[in-house]
Amino acid sequence: MPIKALPFAIANSQWVSLGQTIALTGDFTVEAWVNRTLVNGGGDGFKDVVTGHSGTSGPSINFYADQARWYDGSTDQVIASATTGSGWHHHAWVRSGTSVLYYIDGVLDTSSTGTNSSTGTVNFT
Amino acid sequence: MEEVRVWNVARSAGQISANYGYTISPATSGLVAYFNFAESPDGNTTVTDIVAGTYTGTLQGSPTATRVTATAPVSDPSSTMAVAATIPAATLAASLASTDNLAVAATVPVATSAIALGSTDKLTMAATVPVATMAASLVSPDYVIAVAATVPVATCAAALTSTDALTVAATIPVATSAIALGSTDFLAVAGTAPVAAMAANMTAGTNNVAFDAVVPVSTCAATLASTDAFGVVATVPGSTMTAALAADMVMVVAAISPAPTMVAALTIPFVAPPVVSPWAKLMKPRYARWARRRDGIT
């Protein structure tokens, strides 16, 4: 089966609307391969990858300033230690108990423990 | 983006590392939604959740996004290639940890092998080239090195310590073998040429040397210590054998020709048979003491 990808090349004007929302409660993992050159043309603007909101604020996994972030609606729970850069990279966000962990290309990059009880729903843009 | 997966479990670091470069079965436990964007035709606006279809969505926006051929390094795990290398192992620098086993079937010299073995590791080499310059360094006990060589092992420099085992299957003379064996070491030599000049240096006690020779052993100069076992399977007369056996030593000779002139010097103490009084034969037991005194036997 050929593997395809969605470019979502035009900033914030294309997205996938899921048939049902996926509730992110308790432990979960969200992972995807993302090419920042394709997503938003590689720009540094605020670009959600997975969102739980329909407006301009709310929980999201995004690449603001080219750094993978987990935003709980009011603050970044975890921010990648470095900019993502060009090309394809695999990103994984994990919540395990009160810990939030971010992996890039299969390697743990950043984690935090504390107020990570935020919940949301998955959509991706 | 591609290969979007949503799980209702916290995937471990090992799971993420092991699977991020591969597609995964939609039936994997904990997988809630899985989008691989492989719907056809490409203009299809449906984005299928391939787990159960529950979260299948549609492309939104204007203009509608179109798919591109994915170039991320994601592959089908079932297509993983197994590589059978036929290139020299000379530069192999494998570092083995304890309990690892490495089997090397090399068709090129292992002379420059730089394999470092840890305690209890085992190295088996089936080499078809000289091992003369092999520099395998065996240290602590429990190492086993088996060399099936078809060339002289005369210059073999393997250093064995106590309890190591070295097995050499040589098809040419081992006359110049300079292998030094320690206490309790075992050396088995299957030679088809004279072993006369073999200079195996065996230390006292418990060393074993087994010769399966098809030529005279008359000039064998092996020096055996007490408790050593020496087994010779000879197909020629052992008449001139001059092996010197010490007390309590065991010598086994399977000869197919007469051994009447064998001059083996046995140093086992001679035990005289019991002396019987001629008078005692004629007297009843109660006079036996008198009869012995009569014969001057006390």
Features:
heterodimer, A: 125 residues, mainly beta, 4-stranded antiparallel sheet, 0% helix, 47% strand, globular, B: 298 residues, 8-stranded parallel sheet, two-stranded antiparallel sheet, 3 helices, 19% strand
Short description:
Chain A is an all-beta fold. Chain A has strands spanning 4-5, 14-18, 22-24, 28-35, 48-51, 59-62, 69-72, 76-79, 88-96, 99-104, 107-113, 120-122.
Fold and architecture overview:
The complex is a heterodimer of chains A (125) and B (298). Chain A has 125 residues and is an all-beta fold. Chain A is 0% helix and 47% strand. Chain A is globular, with a radius of gyration of 14 Å. Chain A starts with a strand and ends with a strand. Mean pLDDT of chain A is 71; it is low at 41-46. Chain B is elongated. Classes of the chains: A mainly beta (125), B mainly beta (298). The interface between A and B is large, with 46 and 50 residues.
Using a beta-carbon cutoff below 8 angstroms, give the protein chain pair with the largest interface and the number of residues from each chain: A-B, 46 and 50 residues
How many DSSP H or I helices of chain A?
0
Question: Helix/strand/pairing class of chain A, anyone?
Answer: mainly beta
Rg of chain B over CA atoms, rounded to whole Å, is 38 Å
Major sheet of chain B: size, sense and barrel closure?
8 strands, parallel
Strand and helix order of chain A? EEEEEEEEEEEE
Low-confidence stretches of chain A: 41-46
Low-pLDDT segments of chain B: 79-281
Q: What strand line-up does the widest sheet of chain A have?
A: 4-9-10-11
Helix content of chain B: under 10%
| Count, helices of chain B | 3
Total strands of chain A: 12
Q: What distance lies between the first and last C-alpha atoms of chain A, to the nearest angstrom?
A: 24 Å
Write the H/E string of chain B, N to C. EHEEEEEEEEEEEEEEHH
Beta percentage of chain B is 15-25%
Question: What is the average of the pLDDT values of chain B?
Answer: 50
How many DSSP-defined strands of chain B? 15
